[in-house]
Amino acid sequence: MKAAITATAKYLPPNILSNHDLELMLETNDEWIRSRTGISERRILNDLEKPTSYMCGEVARQLLEKRQIDATEIELIIVATMTPDMLFPSTACFTQKIIGASNAWAFDINAACSGFLYALNVASSFIESGAHKKVMVIGADKMSSVIDYTDRSTAILFGDGAGGVILEPAKEEGYGILDTRLYADGTNGTDHLLMLAGGSRNPASHETVDKKMHAIRQDGRQVFKAAVMAMAEVAGEIMSRNNLTADDVDYLVPHQANQRIINATAERMGVDEKKVVSNVALYGNTTAGTIPICLAELDESGKLHTGSNLVLVSFGAGYTWGGIYIKWQ
Ligand code: UT7
Q1: Which residue's CA is the nearest one to ligand 1's atom 39?
Q2: Which of 21, 169, 294, 307 could form a disulfide with 277 if both were Cys (CB 3.0 to 4.6 A apart)?
Q3: CA distances for 252 relative to 11, 41, 73, 74, 132, angstroms
């Protein structure tokens, strides 16, 4: 039996950092940011005492409430993040503690912006194998913790946020997560989007702090080109493997990095812009959070019906990318 999403939830911190706020901090302007990225504002969890697991906890509580189940019924928690509370223990274990999911095992997945799709695939394998019946999958990133707010090439792009789902066996055959294609290309990807320090290669030191090596570095143009190619390709692959025409696709749920990348992907698929889910204007790039946040908003809007065809696509650091086809139950 395939795995199906039985609840969705999101958490965005209330504090807004607008393009106009950034104009006061950096040599940039609202017009440049909107025309190059589509972003108008992003949310910032500007409370040092609230780490990524805080947002995961908020999502997890809502998921339990929506599904009307107790935390002890959850068998596995997977958190996709590249901004964990700390290198260890995992953010999934902190999340488990927050909600009291005492019967679950828990671990993190780091595939940057593709983290949620990777995690969804791993989680659905446990459902398909029959090992588990209730798995919680959360994508969350506190990007403001790894941004150098004097670097205009990255500071404008990212925001904080989290989203998640509960996965269970589909009620009927032909519904749920029907197909997945996941990729990685470390050979060509590792140098273009990374955080140099804080791991075993460059442990934290005065020097790494002075050189701002604990902040994201990105070769935007390289990543842009690679993202457009990979996302369009994997979306096309998902469509042809599942005999989906552009008309059959009810919603394209792309990773939210840049409206231009989203548009290019939709155009290559031939999918009408009305079917393209986009909230990048309001939240920027929340990394592993973008796709589950979009899913939660789609679900809340009441637009999803039994049989709706969703294509999820992502691209991120690594490089990592992928696509998932869901027939909503
Ligand atoms: O989610 C993970 C994957 N990440 C992505 O998908 C991000 C992919 N990349 C992008 O979205 C885009 O490359 C950016 C939005 C990061 C940059 O847009 P771009 O159209 O590729 O601009 P650019 O980097 O080629 O820069 C164009 C110009 C440069 O000036 P010169 O060299 O032409 O004089 C930059 O210095 O824009 C300048 N610039 C800015 N100007 C105002 C760069 N950042 C800014 C800024 N405000 N914030």
Answers
A1: 153
A2: 294
A3: 21, 22, 32, 29, 28
